[in-house]
Design a protein that fits this description.
Layout (H helix, E strand, L loop, with lengths): L2 E6 L25 E8 L6 E6 L4 H21 L7 H4 L3 E5 L8 H10 L3 E5 L10 H12 L7 H12 L1
Parallel strand pairs: 4-5
Antiparallel strand pairs: 1-2, 2-3
Pfam family, one: DDE_3
Protein name: IS630-like element ISMae23 family transposase
GO molecular function: nucleic acid binding
Length: 165
């Protein structure tokens, strides 16, 4: 299910283990910068696909759906199937989404129905992001990054990319 997440250059302080009576010092200046990711997690084998994005909007969402569709199509072809059979015989891809406004834009939904017939969009109930499994991936990545300082956006992006892909 494609979903977006942001990772900030600002040091995020979390709880940490220390010796009794000691306090952990976390250095970190206020830095501006952010790495945004759109990712998907396949339910049956937990395979994940994550793309770095500039920002979450309807155009980016549509582009990432096309990339995801193509990745699944290539995977299907690599299993020995014919490319021309994908539309009819390929896997049906159900994308479970939160209710972000750009996920529900009418023109995006129409484009997906027209261009990506193997994809069907389904929406979670309002205010229930915990039903989306990729939230666990985001949480783990953010916990790993917490209490760490990054010199620049590129360094943060490299670590996020290693964690998620």
């Amino acid at each position: 299910a494609p979903h977006e997440c942001g990772f900030s250059l600002r040091v995020i302080r979390r709880r940490a283990w220390t010796k009794k009576g000691k306090r952990k010092k976390v250095n970190g200046q206020r830095k501006r910068g952010r790495v945004n990711v759109m990712g998907a997690l396949r339910y049956n084998d937990k395979k994940r696909v994550c793309f770095m994005i500039k920002k979450g909007n309807s155009e980016t969402f549509h582009e990432q759906l096309k990339k995801l569709h193509e990745e699944i199509r290539q995977e299907w072809i690599n299993l020995g199937n014919l490319p021309e059979d994908f539309r009819e015989k390929g896997p049906k891809i159900i994308i479970i989404l939160d209710n972000a406004s750009y996920h529900k834009k009418k023109d995006v939904i129409e484009q997906v129905e027209k261009e990506l017939p193997n994809i069907r969009l389904e929406f979670l109930p309002a205010y229930s992001p915990d039903y989306n499994l990729i939230e666990l991936v985001w949480h783990s990545a953010k916990e790993y990054i917490a209490n760490r300082e990054f010199e620049n956006k590129e360094e943060l992006e490299k670590v996020v990319n290693q964690l998620l892909n």
